[in-house]
């Protein structure tokens, strides 16, 4: 393993002594100790549970080696000087590294550095203060299983021995500690009254909201993590499957238009709302509870640390009012309504009939949002309203513009893995109100009308950007964001593609807020249980600062941009910015299929149609289609369905940083057409696994509490010949933009520009870059299998690569 820790807060001896006392490693019994060996032995004894006998604890210490000659207990009982080597021999074993298997005795410092674990700056013969400082740092050091030593102790019951003896919240090294009893959590349900009447029944919509909070919050207010999840109350998978659209349809010529943005701009309509419900009574006691929520392990982690966690599925979900709308203002309002209630500015009731008001009296008014995908998307939506109380968003794989999720440059485009899905399919899947029979049948006709309006608005016929999509473009209101933003995204995410995070990152750059960005090598995943990076600790540092106002220097300690390397396993690099290349390299395609510095003339041609058998095969096997698209082999059905241009092998490593831009001059044999481009890394190499591997260890989120699986990207066992870097697609009639449609004639050449998905890609020396130009993308675009031929004019086609030197 290789460790990367960014969340170790600054400390000095004064802080060390105070905080070791706060967590009971220093106390009255240690004040009279004047020998470093005795102090370290005391620390070790305290590391094992009090209820274990002194003999058992001594036995555990004796089970560790301090040197080749002595076990740790014998070594410490001599009260001889503690060498730095002796300390770190013991430290590595406390961090679960095995002698002989993971490191060699008497060479621990080298191993610590190899593992990228922090080593205390102390004397070689450690004094009392050195021992305290080294122990303090060790408690904050990640172990072999991806958690800090102090969290490892907590999971074994260190704090649980006497929870009432610790301060609450307990802050250690700038982070909240798990000193709350997760077996005694309060679970309750309320109904928040939103400022909307989405189902037009003459009443403001009530939104079911589930709360899990520490018992201590009855007396002391706590911060809140809110996850807005449309999936939280269940899904209608069968409805989604039935509504999924057929993608084996023909591309068609579109009627030209001369639209400007004002022609398709969405303006929110201010409708007269019903009056709020009269308050008939007030209470602090909820009437409804919950047994088990669809939890997120990062939220579970913070429950043990004294944060309340709130879930709400929003309009059109089980036991809430309204209809699903997939991403528009109504969904945003249903998220901000909960935030406003948590901040004391909105009403909630104990049930949907009695008008008995209940306040979030236990909330300190500081709210963070968490979650991935749709859950992250609603964070972006809520943040763009500037709603009070929302202090920060931890938005993972979030959509910033729904058009860029379901469309691209005038084309209907599927999110990876979901061919045929669209906004109406997602609405049907998340309409869990259907599971409440009386409400569903009462609203059945109105819901069908609502669903039809989504189908009409999304416009799968043209794929153009229109008012429907403009209403779902959060970038328009990014200037209103007041919350600090922590964005996480996979550079290989083919579901919510990287363009979504790149756009919101660029939109918030000018804002006077704190913002962080993590780009990992995954697809559509969470990274809070990775072995190589202290993501959870960083979020702890961040939220302890943002929601508990602890001055822990989180803004400065956490790098602005963290990016996982795609070549070296377990390697993360910190940068000041993303999309900050040193140079833009322009390359031109040649007649002999090379990418060079020189212009070449001539044309390349490819077709789109396949035999029925090959077409049907690729519709069922995207991997085979992709391999055949990228690689040359005998009897390849796609040999004439794409053109490939390659660079010469790279003389040295370099990085592509940002958006690759393709200028094309092309024609189609019909008066319509689409072009797809893929940038590929060619070279036989051991690459990272496509998905993180389960390492077979469970991470505890607290004591006798929930768990997560330790994961990490590893180097594959076999070499692979290529890796896709980025791709892009365009309708040839949307050469200007996604809402302006140009006319097109068969066999006429047209200029167009296409940006591939933004990336940060390390190209090793000896590898070649390949540009593949084709039409139908079996995994993403519609698939008409039409008799179309395309020609590319080489002299007016090029690729621009944003290059950052290694």
Automatic annotation (TrEMBL):
Signal peptide: none
E.C. code: 3.4.14.11
Reactions mediated catalytically: Hydrolyzes Xaa-Pro-|- bonds to release unblocked, N-terminal dipeptides from substrates including Ala-Pro-|-p-nitroanilide and (sequentially) Tyr-Pro-|-Phe-Pro-|-Gly-Pro-|-Ile
Enzyme class: hydrolase
GO MF: dipeptidyl-peptidase activity
Xaa-Pro dipeptidyl-peptidase C-terminal domain location: 540-800
Role played: Removes N-terminal dipeptides sequentially from polypeptides having unsubstituted N-termini provided that the penultimate residue is proline.
Recorded family membership: Belongs to the peptidase S15 family.
Subunit structure: Homodimer.
Protein name per the record: Xaa-Pro dipeptidyl-peptidase
Organism annotation: Apilactobacillus micheneri
